[in-house]
Protein backbone atom coordinates (compact mmCIF):
# COMPACT_ATOMS: atom_id res chain seq x y z
CA UNK A 1 0.00 0.00 0.00
CA UNK A 2 2.85 2.40 0.80
CA UNK A 3 4.42 1.72 -2.61
CA UNK A 4 1.15 2.50 -4.38
CA UNK A 5 0.70 5.64 -2.30
CA UNK A 6 4.21 6.80 -3.19
CA UNK A 7 3.55 6.22 -6.90
CA UNK A 8 0.30 8.18 -6.69
CA UNK A 9 1.80 11.12 -4.81
CA UNK A 10 4.72 11.31 -7.24
CA UNK A 11 2.34 11.34 -10.18
CA UNK A 12 0.27 14.17 -8.67
CA UNK A 13 3.38 16.24 -7.91
CA UNK A 14 4.60 15.93 -11.49
CA UNK A 15 1.39 17.02 -13.16
CA UNK A 16 2.32 19.60 -15.77
CA UNK A 17 0.45 22.90 -15.78
CA UNK A 18 -2.53 21.35 -14.06
CA UNK A 19 -3.01 18.79 -16.83
CA UNK A 20 -5.38 17.01 -17.22
CA UNK A 21 -7.45 18.94 -14.66
CA UNK A 22 -10.63 17.83 -12.90
CA UNK A 23 -13.18 16.16 -15.13
CA UNK A 24 -16.68 14.92 -14.32
CA UNK A 25 -16.60 12.74 -11.17
CA UNK A 26 -17.53 9.07 -11.09
CA UNK A 27 -20.23 8.66 -8.43
CA UNK A 28 -19.33 5.07 -7.56
CA UNK A 29 -15.66 5.89 -6.97
CA UNK A 30 -16.70 8.88 -4.85
CA UNK A 31 -18.85 6.58 -2.72
CA UNK A 32 -15.95 4.16 -2.29
CA UNK A 33 -13.63 7.00 -1.36
CA UNK A 34 -16.18 8.30 1.14
CA UNK A 35 -16.42 4.86 2.76
CA UNK A 36 -12.63 4.71 3.09
CA UNK A 37 -12.56 8.22 4.59
CA UNK A 38 -15.19 7.30 7.19
CA UNK A 39 -13.30 4.11 8.07
CA UNK A 40 -10.08 6.10 8.51
CA UNK A 41 -11.89 8.56 10.76
CA UNK A 42 -13.33 5.79 12.92
CA UNK A 43 -9.96 4.08 13.27
CA UNK A 44 -8.08 7.28 14.07
CA UNK A 45 -10.62 8.29 16.75
CA UNK A 46 -11.22 4.95 18.44
CA UNK A 47 -8.10 2.81 17.87
CA UNK A 48 -6.05 4.66 20.49
CA UNK A 49 -4.05 1.65 21.71
CA UNK A 50 -2.87 -1.65 20.21
CA UNK A 51 -5.37 -4.50 20.40
CA UNK A 52 -4.51 -8.18 20.48
CA UNK A 53 -6.53 -9.89 17.75
CA UNK A 54 -7.69 -13.47 17.79
CA UNK A 55 -7.45 -15.77 14.75
CA UNK A 56 -10.93 -14.91 13.40
CA UNK A 57 -10.27 -11.17 13.70
CA UNK A 58 -6.92 -11.49 11.92
CA UNK A 59 -8.59 -13.47 9.12
CA UNK A 60 -11.26 -10.78 8.77
CA UNK A 61 -8.57 -8.10 8.70
CA UNK A 62 -6.69 -9.95 5.96
CA UNK A 63 -9.92 -10.19 3.96
CA UNK A 64 -10.49 -6.44 4.37
CA UNK A 65 -6.98 -5.68 3.13
CA UNK A 66 -7.55 -7.94 0.14
CA UNK A 67 -10.82 -6.20 -0.71
CA UNK A 68 -9.22 -2.75 -0.46
CA UNK A 69 -6.37 -3.79 -2.75
CA UNK A 70 -8.82 -5.43 -5.15
CA UNK A 71 -10.81 -2.18 -5.28
CA UNK A 72 -7.66 -0.18 -6.09
CA UNK A 73 -6.72 -2.69 -8.77
CA UNK A 74 -10.13 -2.52 -10.46
CA UNK A 75 -10.20 1.27 -10.21
CA UNK A 76 -6.75 1.54 -11.76
CA UNK A 77 -7.76 -0.85 -14.52
CA UNK A 78 -10.86 1.19 -15.35
CA UNK A 79 -8.92 4.45 -15.53
CA UNK A 80 -6.15 2.78 -17.54
CA UNK A 81 -8.66 1.49 -20.10
CA UNK A 82 -10.18 4.97 -20.46
CA UNK A 83 -6.80 6.68 -20.84
CA UNK A 84 -5.67 4.01 -23.30
CA UNK A 85 -8.76 4.62 -25.41
CA UNK A 86 -8.05 8.37 -25.35
CA UNK A 87 -4.41 7.75 -26.28
CA UNK A 88 -5.36 5.66 -29.32
CA UNK A 89 -7.77 8.38 -30.40
CA UNK A 90 -5.04 11.03 -30.24
CA UNK A 91 -2.61 8.78 -32.12
CA UNK A 92 -5.21 8.35 -34.86
CA UNK A 93 -5.63 12.12 -35.15
CA UNK A 94 -1.88 12.60 -35.43
CA UNK A 95 -1.67 9.91 -38.11
CA UNK A 96 -4.46 11.52 -40.13
CA UNK A 97 -3.92 15.25 -39.61
CA UNK A 98 -0.32 15.39 -38.42
CA UNK A 99 -1.24 17.59 -35.46
CA UNK A 100 -3.51 17.77 -32.42
CA UNK A 101 -6.09 20.34 -31.27
CA UNK A 102 -4.93 23.04 -28.89
CA UNK A 103 -4.67 21.85 -25.30
CA UNK A 104 -3.99 18.22 -26.21
CA UNK A 105 -0.64 16.55 -25.59
CA UNK A 106 0.23 13.10 -26.86
CA UNK A 107 3.33 13.00 -24.65
CA UNK A 108 1.41 13.77 -21.46
CA UNK A 109 -1.29 11.22 -22.22
CA UNK A 110 1.27 8.54 -23.02
CA UNK A 111 3.15 9.30 -19.77
CA UNK A 112 -0.06 9.10 -17.74
CA UNK A 113 -0.96 5.81 -19.39
CA UNK A 114 2.43 4.31 -18.56
CA UNK A 115 2.16 5.38 -14.91
CA UNK A 116 -1.32 3.89 -14.66
CA UNK A 117 -0.12 0.66 -16.24
CA UNK A 118 2.65 0.39 -13.66
CA UNK A 119 0.21 1.07 -10.81
CA UNK A 120 -2.24 -1.52 -12.14
CA UNK A 121 0.46 -4.14 -12.61
CA UNK A 122 1.77 -3.71 -9.05
CA UNK A 123 -1.70 -3.80 -7.50
CA UNK A 124 -2.62 -6.80 -9.65
CA UNK A 125 0.45 -8.72 -8.54
CA UNK A 126 -0.53 -8.19 -4.89
CA UNK A 127 -4.15 -9.15 -5.51
CA UNK A 128 -3.09 -12.33 -7.32
CA UNK A 129 -1.41 -13.58 -4.14
CA UNK A 130 -4.46 -13.24 -1.89
CA UNK A 131 -7.64 -13.05 -3.97
CA UNK A 132 -10.01 -14.80 -3.50
CA UNK A 133 -8.45 -17.19 -0.94
CA UNK A 134 -8.20 -14.52 1.78
CA UNK A 135 -11.93 -13.82 1.57
CA UNK A 136 -12.68 -17.17 3.20
CA UNK A 137 -12.05 -15.58 6.60
CA UNK A 138 -14.30 -12.58 6.04
CA UNK A 139 -16.90 -12.00 8.75
CA UNK A 140 -20.50 -11.41 7.81
CA UNK A 141 -23.44 -10.93 10.15
CA UNK A 142 -26.37 -13.30 9.52
CA UNK A 143 -28.93 -11.86 7.07
CA UNK A 144 -32.03 -10.39 8.69
CA UNK A 145 -35.13 -12.44 7.90
CA UNK A 146 -37.18 -9.52 6.57
CA UNK A 147 -34.41 -7.49 4.93
CA UNK A 148 -35.15 -8.52 1.32
CA UNK A 149 -38.88 -7.79 1.47
CA UNK A 150 -38.24 -4.48 3.24
CA UNK A 151 -35.55 -3.42 0.76
CA UNK A 152 -37.80 -4.16 -2.22
CA UNK A 153 -40.73 -2.31 -0.64
CA UNK A 154 -38.59 0.73 0.17
CA UNK A 155 -37.15 0.75 -3.34
CA UNK A 156 -40.65 0.64 -4.86
CA UNK A 157 -41.81 3.63 -2.82
CA UNK A 158 -38.69 5.74 -3.43
CA UNK A 159 -38.56 4.94 -7.16
CA UNK A 160 -42.16 6.00 -7.62
CA UNK A 161 -41.58 9.30 -5.83
CA UNK A 162 -38.39 10.09 -7.73
CA UNK A 163 -39.77 9.35 -11.19
CA UNK A 164 -43.07 11.15 -10.59
CA UNK A 165 -41.70 14.31 -8.99
CA UNK A 166 -38.76 15.12 -11.29
CA UNK A 167 -37.86 12.55 -13.97
CA UNK A 168 -34.23 12.85 -15.04
CA UNK A 169 -32.13 10.64 -17.27
CA UNK A 170 -29.70 9.86 -14.43
CA UNK A 171 -32.53 8.66 -12.19
CA UNK A 172 -34.10 6.69 -15.03
CA UNK A 173 -30.74 5.03 -15.66
CA UNK A 174 -30.39 4.06 -11.98
CA UNK A 175 -33.98 2.81 -11.81
CA UNK A 176 -33.50 0.65 -14.91
CA UNK A 177 -30.24 -0.83 -13.63
CA UNK A 178 -31.74 -1.59 -10.23
CA UNK A 179 -34.79 -3.26 -11.76
CA UNK A 180 -32.51 -5.41 -13.93
CA UNK A 181 -30.61 -6.37 -10.78
CA UNK A 182 -33.82 -7.23 -8.92
CA UNK A 183 -34.96 -9.51 -11.73
CA UNK A 184 -31.58 -11.25 -11.93
CA UNK A 185 -31.59 -11.83 -8.19
CA UNK A 186 -35.23 -12.92 -8.21
CA UNK A 187 -34.48 -15.52 -10.83
CA UNK A 188 -31.58 -16.90 -8.77
CA UNK A 189 -33.76 -17.05 -5.65
CA UNK A 190 -36.59 -18.76 -7.52
CA UNK A 191 -34.12 -21.30 -8.88
CA UNK A 192 -33.14 -22.17 -5.30
CA UNK A 193 -36.78 -22.25 -4.20
CA UNK A 194 -37.56 -24.61 -7.07
CA UNK A 195 -34.69 -26.89 -6.01
CA UNK A 196 -36.19 -26.99 -2.50
CA UNK A 197 -39.70 -27.72 -3.79
CA UNK A 198 -41.33 -24.36 -3.07
CA UNK A 199 -41.78 -23.56 -6.78
CA UNK A 200 -42.80 -25.94 -9.53
CA UNK A 201 -39.61 -26.56 -11.47
CA UNK A 202 -41.35 -27.03 -14.83
CA UNK A 203 -43.24 -23.77 -14.42
CA UNK A 204 -40.03 -21.98 -13.48
CA UNK A 205 -38.02 -23.36 -16.40
CA UNK A 206 -40.76 -22.96 -19.04
CA UNK A 207 -42.40 -19.66 -18.07
CA UNK A 208 -40.79 -17.82 -15.19
CA UNK A 209 -37.13 -17.86 -16.15
CA UNK A 210 -37.62 -16.86 -19.84
CA UNK A 211 -39.95 -14.02 -18.80
CA UNK A 212 -37.56 -12.77 -16.12
CA UNK A 213 -34.57 -12.90 -18.46
CA UNK A 214 -36.44 -11.06 -21.23
CA UNK A 215 -37.58 -8.31 -18.84
CA UNK A 216 -34.12 -7.98 -17.33
CA UNK A 217 -32.62 -7.52 -20.79
CA UNK A 218 -35.14 -4.77 -21.63
CA UNK A 219 -34.28 -2.92 -18.43
CA UNK A 220 -30.56 -3.24 -19.19
CA UNK A 221 -31.09 -1.88 -22.70
CA UNK A 222 -33.01 1.10 -21.33
CA UNK A 223 -30.29 1.70 -18.73
CA UNK A 224 -27.61 1.82 -21.45
CA UNK A 225 -29.71 4.30 -23.45
CA UNK A 226 -30.29 6.54 -20.43
CA UNK A 227 -26.57 6.42 -19.60
CA UNK A 228 -25.74 7.66 -23.11
CA UNK A 229 -28.30 10.47 -22.74
CA UNK A 230 -27.08 11.63 -19.33
CA UNK A 231 -24.64 14.57 -19.56
CA UNK A 232 -21.46 14.13 -17.48
CA UNK A 233 -22.32 17.09 -15.26
CA UNK A 234 -25.79 15.66 -14.46
CA UNK A 235 -24.85 12.13 -13.39
CA UNK A 236 -25.59 12.75 -9.71
CA UNK A 237 -28.74 10.80 -8.89
CA UNK A 238 -31.49 11.39 -6.36
CA UNK A 239 -29.92 10.65 -2.91
CA UNK A 240 -32.95 8.69 -1.67
CA UNK A 241 -33.05 6.68 -4.89
CA UNK A 242 -29.34 5.94 -4.61
CA UNK A 243 -29.64 4.81 -0.99
CA UNK A 244 -32.59 2.52 -1.77
CA UNK A 245 -30.77 1.04 -4.76
CA UNK A 246 -27.65 0.34 -2.70
CA UNK A 247 -29.74 -1.41 -0.04
CA UNK A 248 -31.34 -3.66 -2.67
CA UNK A 249 -27.93 -4.46 -4.12
CA UNK A 250 -26.44 -5.21 -0.69
CA UNK A 251 -29.38 -7.41 0.28
CA UNK A 252 -29.16 -9.53 -2.86
CA UNK A 253 -25.40 -9.90 -2.53
CA UNK A 254 -25.84 -11.00 1.07
CA UNK A 255 -28.11 -13.83 -0.03
CA UNK A 256 -26.65 -14.86 -3.37
CA UNK A 257 -22.89 -14.61 -3.03
CA UNK A 258 -20.41 -16.82 -1.25
CA UNK A 259 -16.99 -15.18 -1.04
CA UNK A 260 -16.01 -14.60 -4.68
CA UNK A 261 -18.49 -17.10 -6.19
CA UNK A 262 -22.24 -17.58 -6.48
CA UNK A 263 -23.82 -19.23 -3.44
CA UNK A 264 -25.20 -22.74 -3.84
CA UNK A 265 -28.96 -23.36 -3.38
CA UNK A 266 -28.18 -25.14 -0.10
CA UNK A 267 -26.32 -22.11 1.27
CA UNK A 268 -29.06 -19.74 0.10
CA UNK A 269 -31.56 -21.96 1.93
CA UNK A 270 -29.53 -21.50 5.10
CA UNK A 271 -29.58 -17.73 4.73
CA UNK A 272 -33.26 -17.11 4.03
CA UNK A 273 -36.62 -18.78 4.32
CA UNK A 274 -37.18 -20.10 0.80
CA UNK A 275 -40.84 -20.63 1.58
CA UNK A 276 -41.29 -16.84 1.56
CA UNK A 277 -39.44 -16.29 -1.71
CA UNK A 278 -42.36 -17.03 -4.10
CA UNK A 279 -44.58 -14.45 -2.39
CA UNK A 280 -41.78 -11.86 -2.24
CA UNK A 281 -40.87 -12.33 -5.91
CA UNK A 282 -44.53 -12.25 -6.93
CA UNK A 283 -44.90 -8.83 -5.29
CA UNK A 284 -41.66 -7.68 -6.91
CA UNK A 285 -42.96 -8.66 -10.36
CA UNK A 286 -46.18 -6.72 -9.80
CA UNK A 287 -44.16 -3.68 -8.71
CA UNK A 288 -41.89 -4.22 -11.73
CA UNK A 289 -44.82 -3.85 -14.13
CA UNK A 290 -46.06 -0.72 -12.37
CA UNK A 291 -42.58 0.81 -12.48
CA UNK A 292 -42.33 -0.03 -16.18
CA UNK A 293 -45.55 1.93 -16.78
CA UNK A 294 -44.24 4.80 -14.64
CA UNK A 295 -40.97 4.83 -16.59
CA UNK A 296 -42.89 5.00 -19.86
CA UNK A 297 -44.89 7.96 -18.53
CA UNK A 298 -41.70 9.70 -17.37
CA UNK A 299 -40.23 9.33 -20.85
CA UNK A 300 -43.27 11.17 -22.24
CA UNK A 301 -42.39 14.20 -20.11
CA UNK A 302 -41.46 17.08 -22.41
CA UNK A 303 -39.09 18.46 -19.78
CA UNK A 304 -36.79 15.48 -20.22
CA UNK A 305 -33.48 16.36 -21.87
CA UNK A 306 -30.50 14.38 -23.10
CA UNK A 307 -26.77 14.80 -23.68
CA UNK A 308 -26.04 16.27 -27.10
CA UNK A 309 -23.44 13.63 -27.98
CA UNK A 310 -25.73 10.78 -27.01
CA UNK A 311 -28.54 12.27 -29.09
CA UNK A 312 -26.15 12.77 -32.00
CA UNK A 313 -25.02 9.13 -31.87
CA UNK A 314 -28.60 7.85 -31.71
CA UNK A 315 -29.70 10.13 -34.54
CA UNK A 316 -26.78 8.94 -36.66
CA UNK A 317 -27.73 5.31 -36.07
CA UNK A 318 -31.37 6.02 -36.97
CA UNK A 319 -30.40 7.86 -40.15
CA UNK A 320 -28.05 5.12 -41.28
CA UNK A 321 -30.46 2.28 -40.58
CA UNK A 322 -33.66 3.84 -41.91
CA UNK A 323 -32.62 6.10 -44.75
CA UNK A 324 -29.22 6.01 -46.40
CA UNK A 325 -26.72 3.59 -44.81
CA UNK A 326 -23.68 5.18 -46.47
CA UNK A 327 -24.76 8.80 -46.45
CA UNK A 328 -24.37 11.34 -43.66
CA UNK A 329 -24.08 14.67 -45.51
CA UNK A 330 -27.44 16.25 -46.03
CA UNK A 331 -29.08 14.31 -43.18
CA UNK A 332 -31.31 16.00 -40.58
CA UNK A 333 -28.59 15.60 -37.96
CA UNK A 334 -27.52 19.21 -38.26
CA UNK A 335 -31.03 20.28 -37.27
CA UNK A 336 -31.16 17.78 -34.39
CA UNK A 337 -27.95 18.85 -32.64
CA UNK A 338 -26.27 22.23 -32.97
CA UNK A 339 -22.45 22.12 -33.29
CA UNK A 340 -21.94 24.27 -30.18
CA UNK A 341 -24.18 21.96 -28.14
CA UNK A 342 -22.32 18.92 -29.46
CA UNK A 343 -18.94 20.42 -28.59
CA UNK A 344 -19.96 21.21 -25.00
CA UNK A 345 -22.14 18.08 -24.71
CA UNK A 346 -24.97 20.19 -23.31
CA UNK A 347 -28.34 18.87 -22.19
CA UNK A 348 -30.83 19.58 -24.98
CA UNK A 349 -34.49 18.65 -25.62
CA UNK A 350 -35.01 15.21 -27.11
CA UNK A 351 -35.75 15.33 -30.85
CA UNK A 352 -38.94 13.65 -32.02
CA UNK A 353 -37.18 10.70 -33.65
CA UNK A 354 -35.10 9.99 -30.53
CA UNK A 355 -38.09 10.29 -28.22
CA UNK A 356 -40.08 7.99 -30.48
CA UNK A 357 -37.36 5.33 -30.39
CA UNK A 358 -37.13 5.50 -26.60
CA UNK A 359 -40.90 5.31 -26.21
CA UNK A 360 -40.98 2.23 -28.45
CA UNK A 361 -38.39 0.60 -26.17
CA UNK A 362 -40.47 1.56 -23.13
CA UNK A 363 -43.55 0.04 -24.72
CA UNK A 364 -41.68 -3.20 -25.32
CA UNK A 365 -40.52 -3.12 -21.70
CA UNK A 366 -44.11 -2.83 -20.47
CA UNK A 367 -45.15 -5.82 -22.59
CA UNK A 368 -42.46 -8.15 -21.26
CA UNK A 369 -43.03 -6.89 -17.70
CA UNK A 370 -46.71 -7.80 -18.05
CA UNK A 371 -45.71 -11.25 -19.28
CA UNK A 372 -43.39 -11.68 -16.29
CA UNK A 373 -46.11 -10.67 -13.84
CA UNK A 374 -48.52 -13.08 -15.50
CA UNK A 375 -45.98 -15.88 -15.19
CA UNK A 376 -45.48 -14.99 -11.54
CA UNK A 377 -49.19 -14.90 -10.72
CA UNK A 378 -49.06 -18.62 -9.85
CA UNK A 379 -46.27 -18.15 -7.32
CA UNK A 380 -47.26 -19.25 -3.85
CA UNK A 381 -45.54 -20.82 -0.90
CA UNK A 382 -45.98 -24.53 -0.38
CA UNK A 383 -44.07 -26.95 1.80
CA UNK A 384 -41.52 -29.15 0.06
CA UNK A 385 -41.99 -32.88 0.05
CA UNK A 386 -39.98 -34.56 2.82
CA UNK A 387 -39.44 -38.20 3.70
CA UNK A 388 -41.65 -39.43 6.56
CA UNK A 389 -38.70 -39.86 8.91
CA UNK A 390 -37.06 -36.56 8.02
CA UNK A 391 -36.55 -33.92 10.66
CA UNK A 392 -38.54 -30.82 9.59
CA UNK A 393 -35.98 -28.57 11.26
CA UNK A 394 -33.34 -29.79 8.81
CA UNK A 395 -35.30 -28.80 5.71
CA UNK A 396 -34.43 -25.77 3.59
CA UNK A 397 -36.45 -22.70 4.49
CA UNK A 398 -36.59 -23.02 8.27
CA UNK A 399 -36.59 -19.83 10.26
CA UNK A 400 -33.50 -17.72 9.96
CA UNK A 401 -32.78 -17.65 13.68
CA UNK A 402 -32.15 -21.43 13.73
CA UNK A 403 -29.50 -21.42 11.00
CA UNK A 404 -25.75 -21.39 10.94
CA UNK A 405 -25.10 -18.78 8.28
CA UNK A 406 -22.16 -19.08 5.89
CA UNK A 407 -19.82 -16.18 5.38
CA UNK A 408 -20.64 -14.10 2.27
CA UNK A 409 -19.19 -11.12 0.45
CA UNK A 410 -20.29 -8.01 -1.37
CA UNK A 411 -19.05 -8.67 -4.89
CA UNK A 412 -21.56 -8.59 -7.76
CA UNK A 413 -23.05 -11.79 -9.09
CA UNK A 414 -21.61 -12.62 -12.50
CA UNK A 415 -25.00 -12.05 -14.11
CA UNK A 416 -25.79 -9.00 -11.99
CA UNK A 417 -22.97 -7.22 -13.67
CA UNK A 418 -21.95 -3.68 -13.39
CA UNK A 419 -21.24 -1.68 -16.17
CA UNK A 420 -19.23 -2.01 -15.34
Task: Based on the model shown, name its key terms.
single chain; 420 residues; two-stranded antiparallel ribbon; two-stranded antiparallel sheet; 14 helices
Give the proportion of residues in helices.
55-70%
Query: Total number of helical segments?
Result: 14
Beta-strand portion reads under 5%
Low-confidence blocks of residues: 324-330, 381-420
Q: What is the CA-CA span between the terminal residues?
A: 25 Å
Q: How is the biggest beta sheet arranged?
A: 2 strands, antiparallel
Mean pLDDT: 82
Tell me, briefly, the overall form.
flat
Order of neighbouring strands in the sheet with most strands: 1-2
Looking at the chains present, what oligomeric state does this protein adopt? single chain
Can you count the beta strands? 4
Which structural class do you get from the secondary structure elements? mainly alpha
Order of helices and strands: HHHHHHHHEEHHEHHHEH
Query: What is the C-alpha radius of gyration, as a whole number of Å?
Result: 25 Å
Amino acid sequence: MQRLEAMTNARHRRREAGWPGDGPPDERHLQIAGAFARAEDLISRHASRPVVLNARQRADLDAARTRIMHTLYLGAHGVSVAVGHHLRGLESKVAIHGTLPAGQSLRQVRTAYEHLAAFEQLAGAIVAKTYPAALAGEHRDPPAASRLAQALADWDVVAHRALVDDPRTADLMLAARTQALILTGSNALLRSAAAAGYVDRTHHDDRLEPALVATQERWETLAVTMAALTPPHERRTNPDLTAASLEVRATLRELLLDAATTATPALIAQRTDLGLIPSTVGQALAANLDLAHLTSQALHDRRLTGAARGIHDMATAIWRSESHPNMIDGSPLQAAVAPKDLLANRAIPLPRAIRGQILDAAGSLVEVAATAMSAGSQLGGRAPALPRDADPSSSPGRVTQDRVVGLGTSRDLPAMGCER
